[in-house]
Structure formats: structure tokens, C-alpha cells
Amino acid sequence: MFSSLFNWLMGAGRELAVVFISMVPLVELRGAVPLGAVAGVPAIELIPLAVIGNMIPIPFLLFFGEKLLDWVCSLGPLSGFATKYREKLLGKTGQVTRYERLGLFLFVAIPLPGTGAWSGALIATLLKMPKTKALTSILCGVIVAGFIMLLGSQGVIGVAHLF
């Protein structure tokens, strides 16, 4: 599904495809960097494009995330998923509140399933963290995650070229 979306976006240019894929929740930069690397976007362009794309929705989530989550929880077909997602986020708040800004940074920076800028912004919103501090922590985490994903992508691509 994501590869077909990426191919469709490639019609507008691979750089724009990287920005748009980075904005998609759950995929974010973690999916855009490997796809951009495979598409041949130079690393010097790939990281800034993916970071910008990943960060575009974050200020909106910091201001309206809790209301958005409440609204999605009230929708019939999505209410079950959204409620479970909220519970999962609340379950991870202990990791973030314990170390505050550093915890939020680490939560976003380590590219594991269920972590990322979207989840980090929603956790910051649910915990009522100061928005500027949360935004700074999330931005730094996104940058680190971008480099981690780039290194991983380059390693996989390098190994694939051996065969």
C-alpha cells in the first residue's frame, strides 16, 4: 500500500514524496527515509526533507491533539482503535514523565513501533507539557531518528548490492 502511494507521489517528484510520506501517522520519517534512500534521494537532501515533513503536523498536534483524539474516539468505526491507542499512549507516559524532555526526546528518537513524532506529540499533549519544550524535544528526536534510519537504510541497501 505504501509503495503504491509512494509511486503515485513520485509523479510529483521523489523529494515531495519523501515530505508527504513523512507526514503520514505511524509511517512518518521511519518509512520515508528508507523509501527515499531506495528512490535515490541523496542523503544531504533526504534527512532535511523527511524532518520537515515529519514536523509539519506536530505544532497542530501539540495544540489540538487531545481534542483530535477525543473526536476520533467518538467516531463509531474508529473508536475502538483510537481508545486502544490512547490507552497505549497513556501506558507509555511513565517513560516520558520520569525524564520529562529527555524522555520525550528518547521516545521519539528511538525508531521502534509505536514511537515517533505523532505519538510523542500526543503524549506531550496528554501530559500537558509546555509546548515549546515538547516541540524542541520532538524535533531533536526526529533528527536523531532520521540519521538512525538513514544508517540502517544505507546498510540494507549496501548488503543488497552485494547480491
Largest sheet: none
Helix-strand pattern: HHHHHHHHH
Morphology: globular
* Helix/strand structural class: mainly alpha
Distance between the termini: 26 Å
**Radius of gyration, taken over Cα atoms and rounded to an integer in Å:** 16 Å
Low-confidence stretches: none
Q: Give the percentage of residues in beta strands.
A: under 5%
What's the helix count? 9
**Mean of residue pLDDT?**
84
- Quaternary state, please? single chain
Q: Give the strand tally.
A: 0
Helix content: over 70%
Give an account of the 3D structure.
It is a single chain. Helix 2 packs antiparallel against helix 3, helix 4 packs antiparallel against helix 9 and helix 5 packs across helix 8. Helices cover 83% and strands 0% of the residues. The longest helix has 32 residues. It is mostly helical and 163 residues long.
Protein topology:
Layout: H1 2-10, H2 14-23, H3 28-39, H4 43-55, H5 58-74, H6 76-99, H7 101-109, H8 117-126, H9 131-162
